[in-house]
Amino acid sequence: MILVTGYFRIAPEAVDALRPHMKAVIEATRREDGCILYAFAEDVIEPGTIRIVERWRDWPSLEAHGKSPHIAAWRVARQDIVVESAEVLAHAGSDERVL
User: Fold this and answer.
1) CATH T-level assignment (fold) for domain 2-91
2) What is the pTM of this model?
3) 56 CB neighbour count, 10 Å cutoff
4) Contact 46, 9 (CB under 8 A)
5) E strands of 1-99, at which residues?
6) What residue spans define the domains of the chain?
7) Which residue of 36, 48, 56, 77 is surrounded by the most CB atoms within 10 Å?
8) What's the pLDDT tens digit per position in 35-93?
9) How far are the Cα atoms of 21, 28, 77 from residue 18, in angstroms, in the given order?
């Protein structure tokens, strides 16, 4: 299993303009083969910081996701939004426990 975690930070006033595009990419991604979880959430302490969490069955699923038409559309939709900072990391492994 592959876990992707991260964030991107944009101006708080840009979140509402980006929200419909986030919704569209989330809905399309959740239908992808190999997608277990795909979510964005705005941080309640840091307005404009969007947290990312994804779970994928395997690397090929994640790689196919990166080449999908809805990810291309997502890149176009956010090209005019200034990203102040970002970090997204993929983690591989199957050692998980219910907490």
Assistant:
1) Alpha-Beta Plaits (3.30.70)
2) 0.91
3) 23
4) yes
5) 2-9, 35-42, 49-56, 85-92
6) 2-91
7) 56
8) 999 999 999 999 999 999 999 999 999 999 999 999 999 999 999 999 999 999 999 98
9) 5, 16, 8
